[in-house]
């Protein structure tokens, strides 16, 4: 009997170990897939242009997953080796901290079961993260800092304008290192306390999204329960973000929140990952007139690479078409790249294949000057305007 109990106990231990080892990887492999495809064309002209221009991406959720981003992975869409292969100069890594069960683009409740809790437990995140949204944001920042410490030749964290200038100078001198910027996807990690913005800033976060898929203490989500505007707490956060020299991100905010922000501040704001309503008329993409108001702030619109914002045409040529529509809608000075890589989206290419997007933009008839702006110059302009 005692032997049988030992065998059962051993089997239970093995089953638990197998779950924690393989289940999180399986979940990510199904959530962040790249559609199988033949190699996309990249002309010599496109390759030459891509290799010498600044390339920046406003949004990737890679820190949510249990992968060593300093090593080339066999799942997901972003890691440092693939960023280097794709010629990426600057990558924003955004911390996802809460996701409602049944998440959808139409309407979600803030009271729904949180999907990130079992993911944090299953990936063996520190216990402090299991019941604290703030700690999840801080932990994901820690992960990026550890990656940069492990691979300083290829990954550097940008927190200040001086950091940005130094990184761009190094790239101009021949470095292929990737500059990483931290952000939060929704400001619910503040947990209703403005003082927690100190902790978020100290951790290195510089891009502050106000909402994600649900209404929060700051105001309404694009996918919430009533197009609510900014709350008084939300207004206080926006004012503090403006003072601190952070970048404010309206992705996932309700249209009313976006209009409230634009009415109370003159800083350039961004929509980090989205599409163009005139090109793909869905709720996830703000109306074109609101996009033009955001552009008028001096801000930028990050073009995403997934089906729901591109109306299913997610090949490089499809994304180039969306970019061209964005240029026609808000002007070439206000369009950027915002992939949403590793954000539980299926894409037709990963970050290593970005030269194919440059090729597709050339084929779409976008001028070299405008391609440079979209690829990274517009991003750098906003970062220089906001970082201190």
TrEMBL record:
Pfam families cross-referenced by the UniProt entry: Peptidase_M19 (PF01244)
Stored Gene3D superfamilies: Metal-dependent hydrolases
Molecular functions per Gene Ontology: metallodipeptidase activity
InterPro entries: Metal_Hydrolase (IPR032466), Pept_M19 (IPR008257)
Record bears the keyword Signal: yes
Signal peptide limits: 1-25
Gene Ontology biological process terms in this record: proteolysis
Alphabetical UniProt keywords: Signal
Protein name in the entry: Membrane dipeptidase (Peptidase family M19)
Organism: Pseudosulfitobacter pseudonitzschiae
High-level lineage: Bacteria, Pseudomonadati, Pseudomonadota, Alphaproteobacteria, Rhodobacterales
